[in-house]
Structure formats: C-alpha cells, structure tokens
Amino acid sequence: MMDFLAHIKKDLSGQSIAVQTVSQHCLNTAKYAAQALKPVHLSAAGYLAGLVHDAGKCTATFQNYMINQIGQKGSVNHTFAGVRLLLERYFSTDAGDFSGVVSELLALASGGHHGLFDCVDERQKNGFQYRLAKEDICYEEAEENFFRFCAGQEELDQRFRVALEELTPALEHICSMTGDEASDERYEQETAFYSGLLSRLLLSAVIEGDRRDTAEFINGTQFPAPPRGEALERLWSDLLTKTEEKLNALPSKTPVDQARRKISNQCRQAAEQPGGVFRLHVPTGGGKTLSSLRFALAHARRHRKQRIIFTSPLLSILEQNAAVIRGCIQNDSLILEHHSNLVRTEENSQQLDEQELLTETWESPIIITTLVQLLNTLFSGKTTAIRRFHALCGSVIVIDEVQTVPGKMLSLFSLAVNFLSEICEATIVLCSATQPCTEQIEHPIHSPIPEIVPHDPVIWEVFRRTDIQSIGSMPLEQVSEFALKTLGSADSLLIVCNKKSQAEHLYSLLKGGDFALFSLSAAMCVAHRREALDKLLSALEQRGQKTICVSTQVIEAGVDISFACVIRLSAGMDSVIQSAGRCNRSGEAGPGVLAPVYLVQCQNESLTKLPDIQRGQGATQELITEFSVHPERYHNTLDSDEAVGHYYRALYRREPRGHHDYSLKDRPSLFSLLSLNGYCTQDQPYFFRQAFRLAGSLFQVFEENTTDVVVPYGQGEQLIQELCGEQAGRDPGYLRSLLKAAKPYTVSLYQYQIDRLNAEHGLIPLQGGALGLNGHYHAETGFSMGESDLEFLWR
Questions:
Q1: Average of pLDDT values for 234-259?
Q2: What is the DSSP string of 605-652?
Q3: Taking the domain 229-339+362-454, which CATH number applies?
Q4: What share of the chain is helix, strand, coil (3-state, %, to 5)?
C-alpha cells in the first residue's frame, strides 16, 4: 500500500469510482482550516490541528473498515490518535510558556471534529487521560504511518513552534480580559470560559476544512471562494455607494424624515471608529435597519471586515429586514438568508454523517439569520453549529432587538461578545429601543459601550406617538368585548397575546364581526405570514375598512406596520414598548396626538411554562406602581429611558441567583460546565477541565428541542412531493436546491408535537433527513394540533 485511504466515492450501485488518500485529505483540511483562521492570525494553529485530525485513519484496521466494511458504521476509532500525538509530543507543565495549554487547544480541535468531548465528565473521567490510555486503537501504527505519509516529525515540531507563537498573544490577552476589580474566582471562571471559546474557534476551523474538502471530493468540484482582499474592499465600497444613493433619495420634508436622516448620518460618522462593541439605541421608527446597514458597510470598508451578519429574534423581523437589505444590495448572490435547519444530522464521534454536507455554512459576504442560529453557533454542541463559529471572525455583527436574548444566558452571551470583539476582531452592534442593563449582571459586557447615536431628547420626542396606559385586569372573554368597544372609535386595532392558545381563542371570539380579521403567529410558515401581512397591510390602507389583527409576539418587534390602537396583554415592559411601536407608527393620528396602547392583565392566565414572561409581568407591575406615585421621575411616560432602566433592575432582582449563568436542575450551571466545571473536584494536570460535550448537549435557546417541518401551504405541498422523489435521492445538487426553496414553507415544532404526529402518521419522511407535514395546517391560523400552551419557536 502506497498510502492510506480517507474517503471512497461510490456510485448509486455501491461501486467505488474514486478514492482520496489520508495525506491528500489532511493536507487539504489543513489548508482550509488555516484559511478560515487567517482573519485572526491563527493560520498556523488551524493548519496543524487540521493536519493531524485524521491521523487515526493510517491503520490497517481502519482501512479494512473502509474498503471491506469490516465493523459497524463509526465503530473504528480514528479521532483519538491526533489527540494522543499532540499531547505526548508537546504537553508539558514545566516549559515556562503556554506549550501545555497550546497542546491541549490543538488536541481539542483535532479530536472533536466529529463531536465535542468532555475534558472532565460527570463521573470525573478525564477526556485527555482516557484518550492517552485507550487501548486497541493501533496508535503506534497510526503514528508511524502518519509520519511516513502525511508529515515528518521535524515538520510537525516546526509547525507547533509557529502555532505556539501565534496563540501566545491570544492567551495573554485572555488572561487580561477580566477586570482588576474581579475576585480571584471570577478571574479564573472567565479566563477558563474565554479559553474554551478559543478551543471552539480552532475546532470550527478544523470542521470547516474537513467538511469542505470531503464535500468537494464527493461532488467532484471545488466550491467558489468568497471575495477577499482588494475584491472584498471594492465590494463593500460599491454596496455602500448603492445604499447611500438610496438613502439620499428618501424624502426629508417632515420632522420624522429629518430625524431619520440625522440618525443615519451619525451612523455613517461612527463607522470610522475602531471596532469593538457599540449600542445603536434609537426610537422605534427611527430607520434602524437602513442606518445599521450603512454603518456596517462603511465600517467593513474602512476596517476591511470579512462579512456582515444581521440577526433578528423573530422570522417576521428577519423577513422585513431582509427585504430592506436586498433592496439596497440588489444582488442576491451576495446574501445568505439562514433561519431553518431542515437537514437533520446525527452526531457520531467517529463518523461523518454525510447529511451534514447539505447544511448551511456562513461563507457569503452578507448573512441574514436569527438570534437562535447565532446563539447556537456560539454554544450548541452540534458540529453543524460549531463549524460556523470561525465565520464570526473579522465580521460586523448587527444584533437586532438585543433585549430578546433570554435572561438565562446573559452571562454566556455577554462573555461571548467580549471574546468576539477582543479575540475574533469582530465589531458587534447591539440594537434596541429598550437596551438591557448588561452592566448589572455578574459577568457583563465590557464597558463603557459607546452609543453610535448619542441620546438626543429632541429626536426622541419626534418619534413619541403613543401613550401606554395600564387599565387593570379582565378575563380573556372580556378582552374581546373591550376590543369591539375600542374599535368603535378607531379604524384599526392590534391585540398582542403571550400565548398562541390565547390568540386562537380571541380570534374565534371575534370571528363573524363586521370588520376584517387577521391572525399572525409562528404557527404559520414564513410564506403564509408574508401573504397574511400583505393582505393585512392592504386592509389597513382601505378607508372605512375596520380591521383587527390578533397576534402573538411575532408582530411586536421590527414589523413595519401601523394600527390606530393596540391592546397588549401584560408582559415585560420591553415587549410592551415593542408592541407600542406598531401603533401610530408614522404619526397618522395627527401632529402631537398620542395614540392609546392599553396594557391589560389577563385574569386566570397560566404562565407556569413561561416563567420569563411571568417575571417580566411582575417587573412591569412594579414599574407601574412606582410610576403611579412618581410619574415625574419617568418624564411622565412609561417608555422613557428611566422607566426602562427601572424595569430591568426590577426584573434582575426577581430572577433567581445564578439565573443569568444558565442554571440547570440538579447540575452545575452551563457557565460552570464551560469554565471551571463543577464536576471537576479533583486535581488534574491539564488546564482544560470543561465538560464541552455535556454543555453542548444541554444548551437550548428555548426550553425544548424543535424540528423544522415542511408544511403543505402553497408551494410547500409541491416541494414535499418533490422531496419524496427519486431525483432528490440521487442528485445532491437538486436536493440542496429543493431544501433551500422549502425554507419559507417550514414551521418549528416541539418534540412532543413530533412524537404525537408520528403516532398519528402526520409526518412524511423526506430526502436529506427532512420531514413534511401531512395535514394539521389551516389556511387562517397555520399549524394546529388543537392545543398549545407553549409558543412556537422561531429559527
């Protein structure tokens, strides 16, 4: 044998038609991993981790498995060899430098490319020691053949020295990132947490290199590289010119127009500042999407950023923002819109699930995605999510409606923002009209955070168009009566509910009236919501047409729509203010007229499964009580900065101790698992002790895992049929195009819903591991199983 095989390409009959050697694959993986880390000057580290990642395939046992199918899928260990090679050769606690830490970093990146592993697990087992002592993996044979066919010992030693030189400044910076005022414990926690993110970054590059090279081998063609260097600078310049031409063409006659233009110009000026973390705190209706796009493009051009990433908490906002961005960019080939994970993959520590080659990567210059996908990229244990992490390096990341980051993960999020800005050289823009007080938490974003648009009371007054009024409590049936009474003096009304079940019930109570009635919720697929919104906007534009929309939270942030009046069932003040942003949005009630936003406490509302909303209600009620006694302290309005600040302080007081660290029942918190690890109670020689695999498996943005399902709405019905067809099974390119086309026709379902649908034969298995819905979808309200107390998730 002249070399060892890494992959075998087969035709549909199972016959071998091409082979790739381990040396070819390792060299290609190393090259792509190095390329992925070039923006943060860690190419040598990426190259070395990629070079050794498949060293364990250089054995006769693995070749028998590959060629003769001896053994079960994924049963032959090949990931331990790279870990052992790096640790045995380079780990030391006596070197006087970061050699030991760097060897561990590289070992984690090499050994985790088919799934994270725990450095110390629940049973105190050390992941490094286990891999060093593991028998029956033919390590000596793998090491000898790797040095013979892939890279010599001298080359490997030289590459380690260069990787050590690269990683030392990053590790020194991490050691200085926790402030002087921090306790010893907090310093150790945060240093370990940041180091864990550094290991994730290196692993991301290895996964990128491995999956990209594998996909190119299977497809028989190289994927096009995104623009870089001078080509990327020209691209940012051209896109900025187009955007500014569009902005200059907007009217500037009214005070609102002029205020928006001033905000936009301040964003353009702020783009010249060095990168870091910024706040974009502008009032609802202030033209935030266009202004943030202008900032991002100008900043990317000025500071040579790799890509721009826009995140939104809800698909409804993502759809609207995407339309605005596409209108300026005018080139869809430059944009990736990523929100659904139709392809289901299975994690195996020794085997690649080839479905993973169909999943989205973030290689496009402009990414439009959801907050869920961003948080998964930062913390999920799935290799498909980890792979995207390197794409955040050298990027501009605009996080819209940042107040929607779940409170339970504020520590994880804040520290990740610090890491991205200081180690990954990313610029992060935190957008919201109700900015959370992150400086109040135990592990905050580094302050001070500069404001892109300094607070100007004159500008805010221009956008003040509503009066939030608390009107007490009433049962849900009485809310419908109050809505009909309100509609007598208003042409249009929006009712925002906390739960889908409430919205469904109100919708049924209001049906049959002499007005246009609409429903909006995340139970409707993107295409359905888009069509419903178009019809709703058309109804609102018709004179004399009375209109009511009953919605869940999907409408309350970022949707460019305006009603004469709003009823909001009591929730956190951030949500209430966002709902108010859908009222009198363009001042159509007349100069100086404040439209009413009624805040109602719904009697007998069960929120035991929604504790965040429950705590938000309590904090809102505390603010309302204080406001009723001293309104002057809040400038006589419940949406002032002072009121919002009071609300967040009250909210944080109500949250249990350790809540922001992602507390877990009967376990250490997720923050603990990703830092000092509460399961690690014994001395051990290694720096890394994190339970990465366990933490990744436990991380969920919301409380339950969900699955994206294609629904039979509109074109979705035809797509389900095509995804069942033979062509989709034999043509990967055709399958990929179908999965992309299916994204607007998906909803995210909880596992209990999936289980029930399976029992009722309500799901159709599709090619690529996707699922289609059989029935259970209604033209007015979307997916329904007749009951739902939990709101749907938006991915």
A1: 91
A2: ---TT-HHHHHHHHHHHHHHHHHHH-GGGGTT-TTSHHHHHHHHHHHH
A3: 3.40.50.300
A4: 50, 15, 35
More confident call, 420 vs 354: 420
Whole-number Å distance between alpha carbons of 429 and 276: 9
Q: State the Cα–Cα distance between residues 673 and 669, nearest whole angstrom.
A: 6
What DSSP line would sit under 55-71, residue for residue? GGGSSHHHHHHHHH--S
CA 726 to CA 656: how far, in whole Å? 53
Rounded distance between C-alpha atoms, residue 82 and residue 206, angstroms? 12
pTM over 0.70: yes
Strands 366-370 and 335-338: parallel
| Nearest-angstrom CA–CA distance, 290 and 300 | 15
Helix axes 229-248, 288-303, angle to 10 degrees: 150
Tokens describing residue 790: 């939990």
Choose the CATH number for 459-654 among 3.40.50.300, 1.10.10.10, 3.30.450.40, 3.40.50.2300.
3.40.50.300
Parse the chain into domains and list their residue ranges. Answer: 5-223, 229-339+362-454, 459-654, 706-783
Which tokens in the block code for residue 506?
């109100």
Provide the 10 A C-beta neighbour count for residue 100: 18
Structure tokens at 108: 């984690």
Fold of the domain spanning 5-223: Hypothetical protein af1432 (1.10.3210)
Q: Can you give the pLDDT at residue 175?
A: 95
Please name the residues in contact with 519: beta carbons below 8 A apart, sequence gap of 6 or more: 503, 504, 507, 532, 549, 550, 551, 780, 781
Q: DSSP of 178-208, one letter per residue?
A: S-TTS-HHHHHHHHHHHHHHHHHHHHHHHHH
* Contact in structure between 205 and 109 (CB atoms under 8 Å): yes
CB 615 within 8 A of CB 406: no
Structure tokens at 86: 């790096």
CATH fold match for the domains 5-223 and 229-339+362-454: no
Q: 326-340 pLDDT, tens per residue?
A: 999 988 889 888 876
**Can you tell me the distance from the alpha carbon of 103 to that of 770, in angstroms, rounded to the nearest whole number?**
39
Q: From CA 341, how far away is CA 770, in angstroms rounded?
A: 9
Say yes or no to pLDDT of 356 above 50: no
* Cis geometry, peptide bond prior to residue 448 (ω within 30 degrees of 0): yes
| 396: enclosing H helix or E strand | strand 395-399
More confident of the two residues 68 and 306: 306
Q: From CA 569, how far away is CA 614, in angstroms rounded?
A: 12
